[in-house]
Amino acid sequence: MSRALGQDARGTLASIGSSVAFGGIYFLTPLLSPAPAESIWAVRNIITIPIIALALVMARQWHLFGDVARLMRRKPWVILGVLVCGAIIAAQLWVFAWAPLNGQGLQVALGYFLLPLVLVLVGRFAFKDKLAWWQWAAAAVAAAGVAFEIVRVGEISWETLLVAIGYPIYFTLRRVIGTGHLGGMLWEFIVLIPLAVVLLVFELSSGTALAVNPALAWSVPVYSACAAGALVLYIMASRLLTMSVFGLLSYLEPALLMIAALLIGERIIDLEWGIYLAVWVAVFTILGGGISQMVRARRPR
């Protein structure tokens, strides 16, 4: 029992630490101006590789990296799957830096709020997961908010869709090709090294951003290392916690991203509140249902 409680405590701290780190990184991203998001992504991609490798070694899971290599040799089509997964995660990391640099931080935060709800629906219809009534209710409320926004402005922002739709495609594809672990993620970063190097060479040859803000020479690598560390904490939490607890704690990150976006000067205006209120109602419905379910599961019978 004490060992299980210790594991829960470590997992909870790792999850909270990850969310706080991502929120802090999001808030500080504008300090990296005028560095383009493409260059920030390139540095982050390269620096994340040794940190993921170290995490695999420390967790005694380095064999997962070799497992993916053998899988790709045995089934060459898996290489294409890894490339597609790499492109999707690269787009997510890119927009995470691009949004706060360009005044679209709230749109990305909204995507992270919608993401768990989309995953619930993907699990139900793609993998035949069973849903509780409160999960259906939350999804319906969120869908109503999205419908309201479409009627109001005719569309949902591409930044929101990239996060809310892109990640479910990413997770589903990783499950299908058998690379849904840290070893698979390491390969996804490795296959994009050539693109990252080209972008860095292009940026360094122009020298424009560094000339305006010389601190970028150290601030971008530190930013990237902190982001990689937050990612490792996130993966650690997913291994230590039950799926229900991990899912509930995952809502802390978009809440902090939203606060960070507001602190750096973005504003929710006029009828935009409609979709945000709907999503918050959905979030609290999920939280309430999940907590209630956990309490009932722990009651002695």
TrEMBL record:
Q: Which UniProt keywords apply?
A: Cell membrane, Membrane, Transmembrane, Transmembrane helix, Transport
Q: What is its main location?
A: membrane
Where found? Answer: Cell membrane
Please give, as recorded in its UniProt entry, the membrane topology of this protein.
Multi-pass membrane protein
Record-level GO cellular component terms? plasma membrane
Q: Has UniProt tagged this entry with the keyword Transport?
A: yes
NCBIfam families hit by this protein = rarD
The UniProt family comment states:
Belongs to the EamA transporter family.
Return the protein name.
Answer: Chloramphenicol-sensitive protein RarD
Organism this protein belongs to? Leucobacter exalbidus
